[in-house]
Prior knowledge:
InterPro entries: F-box-like_dom_sf (IPR036047), F-box_AtFBL13-like (IPR053781), F-box_dom (IPR001810), FBD (IPR006566), FBL13/AtMIF1-like (IPR050232), LRR_dom_sf (IPR032675), LRR_FXL15/At3g58940/PEG3-like (IPR055411). The chain is of the alpha/beta class.
Amino acid sequence: MDCNLELGIGLESQRKRPFLQNDGKEKEIVEQMDIISDLPDHLIARALSFLETDEAVRTCVLSSRWRYLWKGIGRICLRGFDFDPDIFSNLVEHVLKSCNSANFLAFELFCPLLIDVSRLNSWIASIKSCKIEKLTIHANNTDDYILPESPLPQCILSYNTLVYLNLDCFDIQIPESVVSFPCLKSLNLQVIFPDSEDAVNRLLSCCPVLEKLYLLGFIDYPEGLKINISVSTLRRLSLRLVNTESSYEEEHDIIINTPNLEYLSVDDDSFSKYVVKDVSRVSNVFVNYEAIWLDDLVPKYIHHLLDLLKGIATTELLTLHWSTIDVLGSALSYAWPAFPHLTTLIMQLNLYSGWTCFSKLLHSTPKLAFFILDLEGINDSDNRPSDDDLYQWTPPDKVPNCLLENLEIIGIQCFKGNEDEVQVVEYLLNNSHVLKSMMIGYDPDSASEEVREKLLMFPRASKTCDVEIYERVMYKEQDPTTSHNDIILWGV
């Protein structure tokens, strides 16, 4: 195998030692010490396991000692999306043949298109005797279209040591006989519905300690689905349903019964009906409920979204994608759920809903303390609706309670200085009585210096409020893997 040196390993330290000169005086010289070379072989092999496998193989040219060290790795990870299928297959088989398979704890393959399924099956079968903890197989993956699913190698169902399982585009068949993944904590599935409906439901019932689930389902036939996600141990759930058909004739039911769930992400353009039975511990929710054509919205679909929001109303952090706001913009005459515990709201506005939902959401969140407003979508003037007067800012008749009592931090992204944006900033500053900080991401190419000075001069209801203007305002969760919902907000 051609091993070109592309990996530099130079973890060296300096060691001083005395040197006796001709005049009898000692002089210190610096000697380079290679720390890695002093490590035993098994520790070096373990370190190499954290590299991509092709990078680990390249270390064979470093020295005669390093020629075989890579063969002791405990993790195979090969990414071959851009490879020729035969070249990639030969590489996988070379690595499997050369390595000590008894060491394998993780096997991760990202296969190119048109991979030979029979060879793929043989690779998975060859590590059956190992105590694999992490198995990732991405096959037939493309962003342009959906390829037919490959049959899932049945030997995977007997891997009872798995902790992480990631499967992409497989035809999953779960037998009626008892199958169990007693150690599985993280499951990542990409499937095609309705063919995989029963298999997914049965698979979830076989995971008694599952904590994290990501399910991407392509709906390629307008047949009603019923997905039952009833996992008592589940802590994080990310669900994405993609309707590849243009029909919405059949209704899809998604049951979520997860009493220990802490994080929920719903990304859906299928108008599914969500039956949320128990998510009392959920504290962080992301909702992207999309209507590809707003003309397709009927009261039934609007109620589906409102029912979903009602089911997660106890959350503390809520992110509403602009497409969700679009649907809510058609629901102004409906009864909205209140969010009595919500302290952090991230809202992305879009030009097709404009400011219609802004006031109503603030009235629905009395405990709101941290508010991020993303204006990127609302400033697309080239595609603004002809009746845009309906979407402009109108101050609410009554000041929302959150402004009077709790709102402390406001971050505004993609501010361009339009009249309605300026009016919103003025309103928030005039009515937020406990506000501590407002950070505005200001586009200098779109808004004048005069507008900037105007923002800084607005009167403020809070005497302790600082207004800071940056070219960009950004945010992120401090640690999205935990139940804490702390958000970091900064400007550059």
